[in-house]
Amino acid sequence: MNLSKLEQNETPFYYYDLELLGRTLQAIRQAVADAPQFHVHYAVKACATPAILQKISQAGLGADCVSGGEIVRAIEAGFPPSRIVYAGVGKTDREIRIALQHDIAAFNVESTAELEVINALATEMGRKARVAFRINPNVDAHTHEKITTGLNENKFGIAMQDACSAIRLAQQLESIDFIGLHFHIGSQITSFEPFVELCHCINALTEKLEAEGIEVRSINVGGGLGIDYDHPEEHPIPDFEGYFRTFKEHLRLRPSQELHFELGRAVVAQCGNLVSRVVYVKHGIAKHFIIVDAGMTDLIRPAMYGSFHKPVNMSAAARGEEGSEVYDLVGPICESSDVFVKDYEMPLTQRGDIIVFRSAGAYGEIMASQYNCRPLPGSIAE
Question: Fewest beta carbons less than 10 Å away: which of 31, 72, 88, 113?
Fold first, then answer.
């Protein structure tokens, strides 16, 4: 990132490093080059900025969508419908019709109630809907409670013990083509062990279904691979080789089966940065505050999850600032939770300094709001 270029733009805005995104996509391709049964989809919910989507679609990845709007956005960016899968617990009739109209690769179905609606709409439209059932393997991903999704008490998916009966129902419906199983245990998973446990659960379920005479043509293991928020410079690209190797070694994939992945954060998080400008430096009785023009409306993850995005004072680095101070970095929103980080040592900071929040490419710009009547942040990708 070039400081002079950053200073020329109105803050706050998102800056995306397309060169890093390109290297990340190449690392993914290399990691699955020896596994023709592996198919990687990008989770559009992480970042739907057109320039980002276009580069990912050009790299040959499919798209994982969770709304009708994401399906439309993905197709506009160049993703072929034959590589689009669609999940979500509350698919509306309008959204289901959009997916059927475009003949997407598969619906990841999360309840038998949803299955029956898809069948009715597909029959009405003269279409056949390919479906995979999202199954809860009850695997603890050991991540934040708000981003774990594979436990029995989560709103997502169908319990393992109900899988067989749900599939039997699907096989009876005239406009449904049952193709397989879908799983997703959570997000920001930094150990491979939960994925190993997931493999064991899938192996057991697949064997049980085969004993019942049920063919599983496709398995979708979701995503969830985490990134290093603390040291983005040292680890700009996740360990894709280790991630995919886990499934190569522990999942007993049949020769005729396809294996699908849905990676989001791991693809785009490190290439995105939130660029802000210091409005005031405030010296309190017990605390020193850096108040920037970016806030929870631009990057809600710290307020929602307590997430850390490494702040870098680009201006202080450029002027060779040698002194430091412990600050709370806060935004301008009229909420006490509008805090990026507390008690953080930074170079001595001045009004007008450019501060960049790293690792913000996933669930940053896409989750921005207009609370306090603030404009949405812009973006630059280069």
Answer: 113
> What stretches of 239-373 show up as alpha helix (H) in DSSP?
240-250, 265-268, 301-305, 314-318
* Pairing assessment for the beta strands 218-220 and 258-263 based on DSSP bridges: parallel
SS3 category, 64: strand
What is the helix (H) or strand (E) element at residue 209, kind and residue range? helix 193-211
0.85 exceeded by pTM: yes
Q: How many residues does the chain have?
A: 382
Written out in words, the top-level CATH class of the domain with range 3-12+270-381 is mainly beta
Pairing assessment for the beta strands 176-182 and 129-136 based on DSSP bridges: parallel
Percent helix, strand, coil in the chain, to 5, is: 35, 25, 40
Q: What is the pLDDT of residues 211-265, one digit of tens each?
A: 999 999 999 999 999 999 999 999 999 999 999 999 999 999 999 999 999 999 9
**What sign does the dihedral 49-261-158-300 (CA atoms) show?**
negative
Four-CA torsion 243, 245, 250, 251, nearest 10 degrees: 80
Closest of 350, 299, 373 to residue 12, by C-alpha? 299
Residues of the chain with CATH 3.20.20.10: 35-263
Rounded-to-integer distance, Cα 273 and Cα 39, Å: 28
For residue 43, give the DSSP letter.
E
Q: Residue 197: name the closest of 279, 140, 117 by CA.
A: 140
